[in-house]
Specification:
alpha+beta, 4-stranded antiparallel β-sheet, two-stranded parallel sheet, 4 helices, 6 strands
């Protein structure tokens, strides 16, 4: 959860914690992906829809923010301007890694923003499947 200058809470997806050390940990998401990919190893057809909020992808925060874990009671006060570049770099690496792991297992990966219309997401996914990834 994110609380900015107006004290309006914003939650980031499970596992997101921005720290002054500029690290992002996503243990729950990494474990979930590992278990999903095990389904592919058992010859199941697998499509992963990675759903993220726009704020998780773009990190638009400017003011001093309280970052709250969605997995436990931890929180961290941080200046988003100080951690933005590192956050975006690590988020990109995480998304790219998830996409790469899915591709290695011949599974579909689709990044979905919560503000995207579902019909647009599904049409994009189906068009990609039609083309053969």
């Amino acid at each position: 959860m994110l609380v900015g200058k107006h004290a309006q809470p914003h939650r980031l997806a499970a596992g997101h914690r921005a720290k002054r050390r500029q690290r992002i940990t996503r243990p729950a998401a990494a474990l979930a992906l590992k278990r999903l990919l095990q389904l592919r190893l058992r010859k199941n057809d697998l499509s992963v829809f990675h759903v993220l909020d726009r704020a998780e992808i773009e990190f638009p925060f400017e003011d001093n923010t309280l970052f709250l874990s969605m997995e436990d009671d931890r929180s961290q006060q941080a200046n988003p301007r100080e951690i933005r570049d590192s956050y975006l770099e690590e988020m990109k690496a995480f998304i790219d890694g998830a996409r790469e792991r899915c591709n290695e297992q011949d599974s579909d990966y689709e990044l979905v923003r919560t503000d995207e219309p579902l019909d647009k997401v599904l049409l994009r996914y189906l068009a990609r499947r039609e083309r053969g990834r």
